[in-house]
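Below is one such protein, fold included:
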Amino acid sequence: MLALLSPLSGGLNLGLVALSALTSALSAAAGIGGGTLLIIVMAQVMPATALIPVHGMVQLGSNGGRAVMTRRHVRMPVVAAFLPGVVVGALVAAWLLVRLPSGVLELCVAAFVLYSCWGPGLPQRAVGCTGTVVAGAVTTLLSSLVGASGPLVASFIKQGIAERLPRVATFATCMTLQHLTKAFVFGFAGFVFRDWLWLILAMVAAGVVGTWAGLRLLHRVTDHRFDFLFKWTLTLLALRLIWLGVERLAGT
């Protein structure tokens, strides 16, 4: 039955379902990291044409579940400003035919993440309404091109929201909106979601369980410890992106 979930083997399908639970727990507890870890592993076993759309639908379920579970803590003004940018970024991604050389996007994202963690804070204008719209558009475009824009969105959210629960809740809501656009973008491009539907649903269900477990851990973590964990998780992911970007540039 596991072999019927997708074109992959039963063992790989089971591994991806288990990984979805683990990475969702990581995102719920640390605020970030699960989506990037998931796409890195998926890239090892899935066809390139299916990687980003399938990952996007799984992350839609994972972030959507986390957003619902933490809805009382969502900062709606941030989400309301982020949404128009998401729409613009999705429309551009749907029509974009030319992309940057492989590796450049990863390096740009990593540089921004490291700056946000260790550099001076962004000016207030950057985290205001206009800056949030721009962030929504740019990160949605990047998400459709490289799959995981979570570190970039999290870096932006981190600048304007200090408390851990509102940060996790707002990040999850923004990412839900962003991943929702992938159904439109890749559907427009002709991707057949039906072939991967059962695997997507199984990974989403596992992700909901992982999110529930991760949120239980989040409530036990102090703000100071959470900020430390959040910052270092972002840093390690950024270093991984730098390695990946340099490797891809060297191969071109």
